[in-house]
């Protein structure tokens, strides 16, 4: 049928008559207005939360990501990417998994088990491989104490309970008692009320994961929220929760106005840091609490890094704003005992204002054929030896010991902060309250400064967006704080004199990361992780 005949057919005329109906036209107009209103409201929400400049940057980055997605379909682009990734892989593997010709590789089980002496010899060789001088306090963070007596005692505890598993409290009653007591002791430091409770986890990541899971389930049951929104990257990724980042203010603390603008009917929880990892600054927890109470949502305070430093700061003579369960809107707090609690690596405590909220963290399988199963956290079986190690550290150091350690760590941080503020062309980010000092230069490339310090044996943490370095005070690093200040001062003088090397490895890495799509950066990061498992 010709097109002209089709358009003039009776059926077509009926359709046209229907589409031209005034009532339908009004409905279409209403739908269009509602659509435009929703789009404008969404745009307004984005602008309120992120601000115009951040929205522009993210839109620009998004356009770049989309453009790259299609560009990499071109064979020439694919070839270029593959070539560069191959080069990066070789370089990364060379640094992360270097070859040690004097060590034998073990890729399959030995036919006959090695003797005790052979094992000890291999272990000794592995412990003596070239590494950063963390024992001498020249690594930022990572290792929080090198006390030989504490190490010896926790190793004894580990040995005594190396077969223990908290999954079976009736089999290992001592572990159950030590875990419960460790949770109680830490809860007391953070003023958990009598209605509250706590659990031990494997670290800060799991503590935060459990808090997000608990708040998600609570919101689903109590508020009917099925599309939850909060802001904790890995937990949101794992648990299907929409992630909302809000900007910081000039003092590197969360912008409360932006938080208020980001809250909606699907919000299940707010998050604040005491203190945050990059800058060592503390969010306005009391301000967040008011928002949480107003909107009837949870508030998690991340004290994973703040740990026992925030808990003992006041006893050590350092005044901090309120951040714990004395703030009424706080519903959960995470604290890493394996940081400034000086417990062996692999222990953290997640605390809740209400036991009811803690129960939402649990997993139940009542109909499993193997019997009724329940676990408090992600893991089923857990190393009871780490529970014993944590309990041992808490009991051995005690309140007076932790207070003195806080005085040492916080005193060293303050010494570094004051020194940096006196060095020309360096400035400190925000107002660091506990153990971390983050800084940048208004004249020189901060990553070049990092490389210059690295040549002197110092390993600081590089920051990005904005660029910076941070130094973390620990018991080992506090012992050599004067050496660090001296070297930093001398390095900066070298830059002022024009004798310092520029565009080193760190500058190259972060300079490249800032100029390529995030997909490529993530791919390279994946290569780094793959390299960790290269035998």
From TrEMBL:
GO terms for cellular component: endoplasmic reticulum membrane. Its cofactor is pyridoxal 5'-phosphate. The keyword Repeat does not apply. Its EC number is 4.1.2.27. GO terms for molecular function: pyridoxal phosphate binding; sphinganine-1-phosphate aldolase activity. Pathway: Sphingolipid metabolism; Lipid metabolism; sphingolipid metabolism. The modification N6-(pyridoxal phosphate)lysine is found at residue 339. Keywords: Endoplasmic reticulum, Lipid metabolism, Lyase, Membrane, Pyridoxal phosphate, Sphingolipid metabolism, Transmembrane, Transmembrane helix. It is found in: Endoplasmic reticulum membrane. InterPro entries: GrpII_AminoAcid_Decarb (IPR050477), PyrdxlP-dep_de-COase (IPR002129), PyrdxlP-dep_Trfase (IPR015424), PyrdxlP-dep_Trfase_major (IPR015421), PyrdxlP-dep_Trfase_small (IPR015422). It is an enzyme of class 4 (lyase). GO terms for biological process: carboxylic acid metabolic process; sphingolipid catabolic process. It is a single-pass membrane protein. Belongs to the group II decarboxylase family. Sphingosine-1-phosphate lyase subfamily. This is sphinganine-1-phosphate aldolase. It comes from Actinomortierella ambigua.
């Amino acid at each position: 049928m010709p097109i002209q005949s089709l358009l003039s057919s009776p059926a077509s005329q009926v359709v046209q008559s229907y589409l031209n109906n005034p009532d339908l036209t009004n409905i279409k107009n209403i739908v269009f207005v509602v659509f435009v209103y929703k789009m404008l409201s969404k745009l307004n929400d984005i602008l309120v939360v992120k601000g115009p400049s951040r929205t522009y940057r993210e839109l620009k980055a998004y356009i770049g990501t989309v453009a790259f997605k299609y560009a990499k379909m071109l064979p020439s682009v694919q070839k270029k990417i593959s070539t560069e990734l191959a080069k990066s892989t070789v370089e990364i593997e060379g640094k992360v998994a270097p070859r040690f010709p004097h060590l034998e590789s073990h890729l399959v089980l030995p036919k006959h088990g090695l003797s005790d002496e052979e094992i000890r010899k291999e272990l000794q060789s592995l412990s003596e491989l070239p590494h950063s001088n963390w024992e001498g306090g020249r690594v930022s963070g990572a290792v929080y104490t090198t006390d030989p007596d504490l190490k010896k005692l926790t190793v004894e505890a580990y040995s005594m309970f190396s077969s223990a598993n908290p999954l079976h409290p009736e089999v290992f009653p001592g572990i159950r008692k030590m875990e419960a007591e460790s949770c109680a002791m830490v809860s007391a430091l953070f003023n958990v009320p009598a209605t509250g409770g706590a659990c031990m986890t494997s670290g800060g990541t799991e503590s935060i994961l459990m808090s997000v899971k608990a708040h998600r389930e609570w919101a689903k049951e109590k508020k009917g929220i099925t599309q939850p929104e909060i802001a904790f990257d890995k937990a949101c990724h794992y648990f299907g929760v929409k992630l909302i980042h809000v900007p910081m203010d000039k003092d590197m603390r969360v912008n409360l106005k932006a938080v208020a603008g980001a809250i909606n009917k699907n919000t299940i929880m707010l998050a604040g840091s005491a203190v945050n990892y990059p800058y060592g600054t503390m969010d306005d927890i009391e301000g967040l609490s008011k928002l949480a109470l107003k909107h009837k949502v949870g508030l998690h305070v991340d004290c994973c890094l703040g740990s026992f430093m925030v808990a003992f700061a006041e006893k050590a003579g350092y005044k901090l704003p309120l951040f714990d369960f004395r703030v009424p809107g706080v519903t959960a707090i995470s604290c890493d005992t394996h940081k400034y609690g000086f417990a062996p690596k692999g222990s953290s405590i997640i605390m809740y204002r209400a036991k009811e909220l803690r129960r939402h963290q649990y997993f139940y399988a009542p109909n499993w054929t193997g019997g009724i199963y329940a676990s408090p956290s992600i893991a089923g079986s857990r190393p009871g030896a780490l529970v014993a190690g944590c309990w041992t550290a808490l009991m051995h150091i005690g309140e007076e010991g932790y207070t003195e350690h806080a005085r040492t760590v916080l005193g060293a941080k303050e010494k570094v902060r004051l020194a940096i503020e006196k060095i020309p062309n360096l400035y400190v980010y925000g107002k660091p309250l506990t153990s971390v000092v983050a800084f940048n230069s208004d004249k020189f490339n901060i990553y070049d400064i990092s490389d210059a310090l690295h040549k002197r044996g110092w390993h600081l943490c590089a920051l990005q967006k904005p660029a910076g370095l941070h130094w973390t005070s620990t018991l080992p690093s506090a012992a050599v704080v004067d050496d660090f200040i001296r070297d930093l001062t001398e390095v900066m003088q070298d830059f002022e004199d024009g004798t310092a090397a520029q565009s080193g490895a760190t500058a190259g890495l972060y300079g490249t990361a800032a100029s390529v799509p995030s997909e490529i950066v993530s791919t390279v990061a994946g290569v780094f992780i793959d390299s960790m498992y290269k035998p």
